[in-house]
Design brief:
Layout: E1 2-3, H1 7-20, H2 25-41, E2 49-54, H3 58-72, E3 76-82, H4 89-98, E4 105-107, E5 121-125, H5 137-148, E6 152-156, E7 177-181, H6 194-197, E8 199-203, H7 209-214, E9 219-221, H8 224-230, E10 245-249, H9 256-268, E11 273-278, H10 280-289, E12 294-297, E13 315-318, H11 326-338, E14 343-345, H12 347-355, H13 357-360, E15 368-369, H14 373-380, H15 386-400, E16 403-406, E17 412-414, E18 420-422, H16 435-448, H17 453-475, H18 482-496
Parallel strand pairs: 2-3, 2-5, 3-4, 5-6, 6-7, 7-8, 9-18, 10-11, 10-13, 11-12, 13-14, 14-15, 15-16
Antiparallel strand pairs: 1-9, 16-17, 17-18
The structure holds ligand NAX, adenosine-5'-diphosphate (ADP) and potassium ion (K).
Length: 501
């Protein structure tokens, strides 16, 4: 698991590294500059004209160090320093080291609109993690010019003006790429910050490994290695009973497709047996579309109303295409009154819980809820920003002793203990109807095979996104449809298992 740390934690790590490695503060800055430059030179050749915009703090100090290193590699570099604020010691040290290499262009007033016209690339080193209030005045004016520049904008550590652990206000640099030191910052995972962060990249600056390991956090992001460790190979003498019997309660008149997508994904996720409960109208369709599954037929024609029995199923997945008819609400009530094993709850099943809140408290411990942001809002109420939403998500997971998965780019998975795991696979091609139904199927299939709820959620969300990435590699984002995720799920399993699936 890769940690996401707060600015305060990173500051502590910086100080600890300086004291215990030991390394001089300026040498740590030198390492940060070198890490940035190594990243940068792989992506820009010396024909590109570079502008570096510096503040007078340590982020600005980085900018000056980067300028020196790029000049030594024969890049054409112009350095601007925005006046104001007491320069830090390391900024001063790097200013001295730069003397004679380049003349610093000081900015004391609103710069002309043409200021960055001669730059192919603007490196933003105005402010980093030291930001303590919204940027305004001269800083806002410079940022306006940076954002208007027809150049590739690259931020050092964080885009200037963006707060790493809290909602941001004021002027913020809109970087296309952010090269961040050692660990990603929480703000990078939120949709509202995407216009500022662009694509983020992590470079290692060698902060103290021991303390990095010991630093506690509630926030992680998921890598291929973490997922590989959670995946379980099938045993030689196993049989279909080993892999659970899932019940999928899905589909209504006009929405049998949702049941098909979830069912197909469930089977491809490796479940032993699958029964789908669906209204009469869905029966013939499902038997043809998913011959591997058994079908339990509801007495009602168009929507589900009565589940004969929930006994004997290892897991219930409920929601895709379900509808919210009164009879369906009654059925949900009955399920929640009788079934005590973990469930996967999605789509209309979540909307039913939101509209009948007494049912919410009956969700079996260890369940997985998979709302998209709108469904989450119905469940947990409106929030002013994504930081607040994340806190509510942790609260809901704790309250229900369940895993809450809020879907989107960087889907967030919250454990019952309130720990958050951000998924890193997936792409905008997946923003198309039915992809959520596929996820419900995958998660239900994994839970049936006695993965823990948290492992099922982390592995399942990762596989789902990876299937999307592999599909996109062949088909492109625009043409991706939900069925493609099912088609590419086997390839995703193969990749996660290191070819052993
Ligand atoms: N040893 C270290 O601490 C290292 C720090 N590094 C760099 O240092 C950065 C942090 O540096 P600093 O802590 O000096 O902070 P910044 O360079 O981000 O900001 C400088 C100063 O600006 C002032 N300021 C904050 N908000 C302002 C506002 N709205 N208007 C005007 N002034 C404002 C504050 O007094 C702050 O200390 C990191 O992001 C990273 O780039 C790296 O060089 C790695 C090592
Ligand atoms: N831009 C994106 N990047 C990564 N994943 C995405 C993106 N947009 C959507 N997805 C994924 O696609 C799925 C959409 O689910 P959902 O909103 O429930 O759709 P539906 O109800 O149509 O099935 C989620 O798993 C989500 O994480
Ligand atoms: K910056």
């Amino acid at each position: 698991m890769t940690k996401i740390l707060t600015t305060d934690q990173i500051r502590t790590l910086d100080a600890y590294t300086i004291q215990h490695e030991p390394v001089a503060s300026i040498d740590l800055m030198e390492r940060a500059c070198r890490a940035f430059v190594e990243w940068f030179i792989k992506r820009a050749d010396t024909s590109r004209r570079i502008g570096i915009v510096c503040g007078t703090g340590n982020n600005g100090g980085d900018g000056l160090g980067i300028a020196r290193m790029l000049l030594a590699r024969h890049y054409t570099v112009t350095v601007w320093v925005v006046e104001g604020g007491k320069p830090t010691a390391d900024f001063e040290a790097n200013r001295t080291r730069l003397l004679g290499n380049v003349i610093l262009q000081m900015i004391a007033d609103t710069p002309p609109s043409t200021i960055f016209d001669t730059c192919d690339i603007v490196i933003d080193a105005l402010f980093g993690s030291g930001l303590s209030r919204p940027l305004e005045g001269i800083y806002a004016a410079v940022i306006e010019r940076i954002n208007a520049a027809a150049a590739w904008r690259v931020a050092v550590d964080v885009p200037s003006g963006l707060r790493a652990d809290a909602p941001s206000q004021g002027a913020i640099v809109q970087a296309q790429d952010t090269v961040s030191f050692q660990v990603p910052k929480l703000a990078f995972f939120f949709a509202s910050n995407a216009p500022y962060v662009g694509t983020w990249h992590i470079v290692d600056i060698g902060l103290h490994k021991g303390l990095l390991q010991d630093t506690e956090t509630d926030h992680y992001y998921v890598s291929n290695d973490d997922v590989h460790r959670r995946w379980k190979p099938r045993a030689r003498f196993s049989h279909k009973g080993t892999y659970g019997h899932a019940l999928l309660v899905a589909g209504s008149y006009g929405k049998t497709g949702a049941a098909i997508l979830a069912a197909r994904a469930l089977l491809r996720a490796g479940v032993g047996l699958l029964t789908i409960h669906t209204p009469v109208r869905g029966y013939a369709i499902l038997q043809q579309a998913v011959p591997e599954a058994m079908v339990s037929i509801d007495p009602f024609e168009e929507y589900a109303s009565t589940l004969p029995s929930s006994d004997g199923y290892s897991v219930i997945g409920v929601g895709p295409g379900l509808g919210q008819a009164d009879a369906t609400v009654k059925m949900m009530r009955k399920i929640l009154e009788t079934y005590r094993k973990p469930m996967v709850i999605d789509a209309d099943a979540l909307n039913i819980l939101a509209a009948h809140r007494e049912l919410l408290l009956r969700v079996p411990a260890g369940s997985i809820l998979t709302p998209h942001p709108k469904e989450f809002e119905r469940l947990a109420g409106k929030t002013a920003n994504e930081f607040e939403r994340l806190e509510k998500q942790k609260e809901l997971a704790r309250q229900l002793k369940s895993v809450v998965v809020v879907k989107g780019a960087y889907t967030s998975i919250t454990s019952p203990g309130g720990v958050v795991y951000f998924n890193t696979t997936g792409n905008p091609g997946m923003a198309t109807g039915g992809t959520g139904d596929v996820l419900t199927g995958i998660l239900t299939g994994l839970l049936a095979q006695s993965y823990t709820s948290l492992d099922a959620a982390i592995l399942g969300v990762y596989l789902h996104g990876l299937a999307g990435d592999l599909a996109t590699h062949d088909l492109g984002e625009d043409s991706l449809v939900a069925s493609d995720l099912v088609t590419y799920l086997p390839a995703a399993f193969l990749k996660v298992s290191g070819g052993k699936s």
